[in-house]
Amino acid sequence: MKILLCCGAGASTSLVAQCMMDSLPENEKGNYIINAITYDLFLDNYKNYDVVLLGPQIRYKKKALEKEAMADNIPVDVINSMDYALQNGAKIIEHAKQLYKKAHSA
What we know:
Elements: E1 2-7, H1 11-23, E2 33-38, H2 42-45, E3 51-54, H3 62-70, E4 76-78, H4 81-85, H5 89-103
Parallel strand pairs: 1-2, 1-3, 3-4
Helix pairs in contact: 1-5
């Protein structure tokens, strides 16, 4: 699964992306690509991913970014603030899995 994280400057989501990878068992790490970018690079990158997660600090961008990605059936959602602050990689990956499953179950 390819997961794209977007935030204002990219620094904090880069840390979250690393925590997400670190939370995976060694035998699953090859199944994931997790990258972090600034939201202004969204249009150039989102089509290469299965799920887009936004940092809580740019939750106000969700509607516009979601509108773009919906045409390509790529779910966009905001990372839970507590999971983001605590860098709970496992919970954030689970959130991405659920979004992907929901988008592709119809």
